[in-house]
Recover the amino acids of this structure.
């Protein structure tokens, strides 16, 4: 098991497993494997163990937020399964008076004792994680199903980068309706080219523009539909660099911004400025090494990976369980994560 | 040759269960853990180059991580000098138990060249397949899998393709290009086959035999490639090294031999990197620039904040400042751009740090100024110290108010005393040279006792033929003028551009003089001065006569020339000439000696002071075999027949000497013959 974990960490470090979706699935599978193979006594012990493993995984790639999200989801599943077990146990044991008692008194979540052991707990936790993996698998389809409600005929949509969720979403709409898509090329990775190619192959009317043309083109756009790297606790986004420009331009022209995302990208962290959760890539993506010597002594070259987009620039989130306002994100967080499952380093 | 094989850790056996690598074509790599040169002395006297920290992570880790992330399953680290340290390091690091990877060390204590190392590897029979041969100081993020695949297809097409060399494109004056690497690479533009590889500072011309063009209709000669020292080799390479026991180096011997051989039909290929990074830390200047490249993230994802070794905790903030956890910044200290600070280091109030790399657990006092320097782990820098563009190795200390100048190296645990000012380009080490079997040249590179201020500990270390961390100001001029001449001298492309001969000549003379003076002042080996002058000779395309004419005035320089007597002057001149005649005799040959004498006459004409000393100059040159008697006689004859009376002045001056020579010749004809032979 240790060896498998180590391999997974290596894959994360070397980015051989990359992209939120791949990473999430792999994390869920590794945790499922861990829970079924590793020895543990009770829920309390298991939570400690998963937290320890989780910390190592998060440290391996701290900016892949979905690792932490999946771990929290798994911890939440463990807690939930344990509580249902305990409840059904107490229900069958004691009389209805006890039930009334629990209804009336408030139980502090910190006081719950997770140390009791149930023989069937393991199986139900595994079931819970299987459901989570199913959710991940069906996510693109679930998001895409809502496309018809949001894209109308003859609209012009602008999108950026290369997100599978957005791509499926647009393609799904394209099957029923006719509309145009403007793809922003997203330098220096030029992922927008990929999206444009894929959409035009699906028979959607596609236009490719440079990043600098975003503002000029915005006036004729009806909706901006983008993907994101993570959704922060306040409803802000950590998304591919260039998105902020797009969002501000859309705000100026009062074009609604719709973000397509799976629930697993929901992240209980706050990003307070552009630098908090950001990383820089190699300047080699846009600058030739052989030319760089003349530049570097006086010119600095930065290649940021992400942008932080404050929540007031986002109008709607479309998740696999439906559409939500940015201000509703905190509620979703409570529904899927337990407030106790915070990893110390993330608190910064 | 004793080759012991050691398996470190349990990584080998149960590896392939989790990683999807087929065991039948397991990829192998050989890492040369020794550089076989002294570019990093005196640091490398105590620690191997591969374990020196580059941006606070040992160099070897970069190389191993690069190989491991490319899917190499078996790595052999071959170590010679300091093999115990390397073995110990690998044993205790995470490399010894990574899934899907086995790192083994091989020790060849007697190996002194790359050739010896490769022969030892051949004789241990561990390499069966194509393998990657890499130096243990290469930093790269290239996609090796692609290069391996290309090598494989080339080999399938033609069995004789035994090696693919990896190059990175960069302009000739790029900072990451080592000054030692001055390679002109000839490539077939269609097949990318290597046709010529010339790496020498002296030769300024590339010779391609006409027959080359029969085989390769179009050849590119490129001067914009960095040799990354990453070679994808087939097992034949090792076999060839084993067959030719005189091969010492891959670049110098092996490639040259393969390319010029008419018997063997082996082919070498090239692979030029596109958007990927690869460079070797070859010497101090490249150490400096590769560090910069890492900080500027050219090596992404191999950057500090990726923490790829899992034992660091760097995070990146604005202006390329990398800080590990637990860094203490006190009061109003200033941390400027392009700075890396390791775990547990503390920086005192009012201190200013920029463009520098600080290791772990360093203590830096108040009001310290550190710019462009490399401070390794556990250094102590007390209040009011200034450090500019220097290297301080682990455990070194700089006491209060001291100053460390440009290009200095303060080796392990050395201490710079209170108020002491370390001059530029000084190297200080505690290393005791107790190996008795060292050769003569080593003595030149040994410690010289030096006073390092109050409480200072260390010896000054003088090194020969070593490139400095940052260019010396005078050297940088030299390099500039060299690169100028490069653009003119690239005869391959443009014939019509010829530099201004007069200024070129003056430049040449000035530079030779400078070289000789520096050589004498720094007490360099005569051979090295010779070599340098020879380099200049080729660089400026000058003859030996010009060299002689340029060198002589330096040797004739006598302090306070106007105030001393003729006798004192002649004796100093004689002493100087006999001491440094070796430099002159290298360039002297029979054909030019006559002209040389005329040049001396000219020189004396221009410098009145030397007129009187002409005879003694001639005499001492004769005695030290720089000028033969035939040349002197010939000169005497020619001057005799000269109608211009002025010229007879010199002849009369040394009439006595010539007569003596004539008598000596008549007396012993036989000995004369011998003398002549010696002159050759």
């Amino acid at each position: 098991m240790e060896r498998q974990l180590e391999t997974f960490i290596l894959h994360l470090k070397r980015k051989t497993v990359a992209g939120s979706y791949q990473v999430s699935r792999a994390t869920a599978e590794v945790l499922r494997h861990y829970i079924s193979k590793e020895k543990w006594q009770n829920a309390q012990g298991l939570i400690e163990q998963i937290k320890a493993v989780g910390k190592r995984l998060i440290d391996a790639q701290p900016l892949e937020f979905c690792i932490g999200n999946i771990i929290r989801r798994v911890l939440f599943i463990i807690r939930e399964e344990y509580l249902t077990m305990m409840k059904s146990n107490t229900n069958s044991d004691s009389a209805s008076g006890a039930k009334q008692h629990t209804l009336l008194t408030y139980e502090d979540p910190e006081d719950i004792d997770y140390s009791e052991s149930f023989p069937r707990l393991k199986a139900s936790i595994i079931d819970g994680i299987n459901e989570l993996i199913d959710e991940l698998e069906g996510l693109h389809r679930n998001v895409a199903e809502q496309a018809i409600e949001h894209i109308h005929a003859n609209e012009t949509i602008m999108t950026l980068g290369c997100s599978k969720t957005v791509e499926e979403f647009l393609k799904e709409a394209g099957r029923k309706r006719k509309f145009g898509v403007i793809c922003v090329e997203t330098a220096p990775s030029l992922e927008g080219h990929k999206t444009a190619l894929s959409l035009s192959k699906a028979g959607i009317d596609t236009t490719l523009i440079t990043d600098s043309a975003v503002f000029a083109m915005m006036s004729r756009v009806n909706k901006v539909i983008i993907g994101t790297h993570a959704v922060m606790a306040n409803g802000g986004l950590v998304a591919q660099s260039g998105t902020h420009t797009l969002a501000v331009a859309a705000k100026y022209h009062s074009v609604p911004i719709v973000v397509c995302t799976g629930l697993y990208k929901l992240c209980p962290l706050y990003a307070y400025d552009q630098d908090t959760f950001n990383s820089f890539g190699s300047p080699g993506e846009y600058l030739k090494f052989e030319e760089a010597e003349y530049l570097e002594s006086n010119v600095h070259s930065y290649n940021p990976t992400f942008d932080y987009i404050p929540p007031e620039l986002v109008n709607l989130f479309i998740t696999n369980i439906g559409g939500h306002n940015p201000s509703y994100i905190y509620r979703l967080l409570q529904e899927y994560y337990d407030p106790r499952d915070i990893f110390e380093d993330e608190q910064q | 040759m004793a080759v012991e094989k050691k398996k470190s850790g349990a990584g080998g056996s149960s590896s392939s269960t989790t990683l999807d690598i087929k065991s039948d074509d397991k990829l192998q790599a050989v890492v040369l853990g020794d550089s076989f040169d002294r570019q990093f002395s005196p640091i490398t006297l105590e620690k191997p180059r591969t374990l020196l920290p580059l941006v606070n992570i040992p160099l070897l880790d970069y190389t191993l991580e690069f190989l491991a992330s490319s899917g190499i399953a078996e790595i052999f680290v071959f170590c010679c000098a300091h093999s115990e340290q390397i073995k110990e390091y690998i044993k205790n690091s995470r490399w010894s138990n990574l899934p899907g990877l086995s790192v083994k060390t091989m020790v060849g204590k007697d190996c002194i060249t790359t050739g010896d190392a490769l022969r030892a590897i051949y004789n241990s029979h561990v390499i069966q397949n194509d393998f990657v041969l890499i130096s243990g100081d290469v930093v790269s993020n290239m996609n090796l899998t692609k290069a391996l695949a290309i090598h494989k297809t080339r080999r399938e097409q033609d069995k004789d393709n035994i090696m693919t060399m990896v190059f990175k494109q960069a302009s000739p004056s790029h900072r990451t290009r080592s000054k030692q690497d001055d390679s002109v690479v000839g490539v077939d533009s269609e097949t990318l086959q290597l046709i010529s590889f010339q790496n020498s500072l002296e030769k300024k011309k590339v010779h391609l035999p006409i027959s080359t063009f029969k085989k390769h209709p179009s050849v590119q000669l490129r001067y914009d490639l960095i040799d990354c020292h990453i070679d994808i080799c087939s097992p034949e390479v090792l076999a060839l090294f084993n067959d030719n026991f005189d091969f010492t180096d891959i670049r110098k011997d092996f490639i040259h031999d393969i390319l010029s051989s008419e018997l063997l039909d082996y082919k070498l290929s090239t692979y030029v990197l596109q958007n990927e990074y690869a460079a070797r830390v070859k010497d101090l200047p490249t150490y400096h620039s590769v560090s910069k490249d890492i900080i500027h993230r050219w090596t992404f994802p191999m950057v500090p904040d990726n923490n790829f070794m899992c034992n660091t905790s760097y995070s990146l903030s604005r202006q390329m400042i990398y800080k590990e956890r637990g860094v203490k910044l006190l009061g109003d200290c200033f941390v400027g751009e392009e700075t890396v600070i390791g775990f547990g280091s503390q920086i005192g109030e009012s201190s200013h740090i920029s463009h520098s790399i600080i290791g772990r657990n360093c203590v830096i006092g108040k009001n310290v100024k550190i710019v462009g320097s490399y401070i390794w782990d556990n250094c102590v820098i007390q209040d009011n110290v200034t450090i500019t563009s220097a290297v301080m190795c682990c455990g070194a200390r700089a006491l209060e108010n001291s100053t460390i100048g440009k290009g200095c190296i303060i080796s392990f645990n050395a201490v710079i005393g209170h108020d002491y000012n370390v001059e530029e380009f000084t190297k200080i080490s505690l290393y005791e040279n107790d190996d008795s079997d060292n050769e003569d040249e080593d003595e030149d590179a040994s410690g010289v006792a030096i006073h390092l201020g109050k409480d200072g500990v260390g010896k000054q270390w003088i090194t020969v033929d070593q490139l400095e961390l940052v260019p010396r100001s005078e050297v940088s001029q030299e390099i500039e003028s060299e690169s100028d001449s490069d653009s003119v001298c690239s005869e391959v492309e443009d014939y019509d551009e010829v530099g201004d001969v007069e200024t070129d000549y003056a430049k040449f003379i000035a530079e030779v003089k400078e070289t000789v003076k520096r050589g004498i002042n720094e007490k360099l080996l005569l051979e090295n001065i010779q070599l340098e002058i020879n380099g200049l000779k080729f660089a400026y395309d000058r003859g030996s006569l010009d060299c002689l004419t340029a060198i002589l005035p330096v040797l004739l320089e006598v302090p306070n020339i106007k105030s001393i007597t003729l006798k004192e002057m002649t004796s100093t001149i004689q002493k100087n000439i006999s001491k440094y005649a070796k430099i002159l005799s290298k360039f002297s040959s029979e054909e030019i000696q006559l002209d040389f004498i005329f040049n001396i006459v000219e020189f004396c004409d221009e410098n009145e002071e030397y007129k009187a000393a002409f005879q003694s100059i001639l005499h001492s040159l004769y005695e030290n075999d720089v000028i033969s008697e035939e040349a002197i006689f010939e000169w005497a004859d020619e001057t005799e027949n000269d109608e211009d009376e002025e010229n007879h002045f010199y002849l009369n001056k040394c009439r006595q000497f010539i007569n003596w020579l004539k008598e000596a010749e008549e007396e012993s004809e036989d000995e004369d013959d011998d003398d002549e032979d010696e002159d050759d």
